[in-house]
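Working notes for the structural subgroup meeting. M.R. asked for a predicted model of this chain before we commit to crystallization trials. I am recording the input and output together here so anyone reviewing the notebook later can reproduce the run.

Input as submitted:
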Amino acid sequence: MSHKWKQVLLERKEADIVFLDCKKAFDRLPHDVIITGLSKAGIKGQLQVLIDDDLRGRSQRVVVDGRFSEESQVKSGVP
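Returned structure, recorded in token form:
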């Protein structure tokens, strides 16, 4: 995205940029609920795919005394 913004600036064009800080707003909602809600709010197309890809397929594990737990799929919250 930064490359595209640089091109717009070099060409002296205008650009609309939206930054979303969703960490605390959605930290307990299931990913499916977040994606469905964004879709109902009009977030569709490439932006919806980008957000969906960022949320899905995440996993976590912990280390205690040098031993790793099994990975667990993360199905809610925003990284």
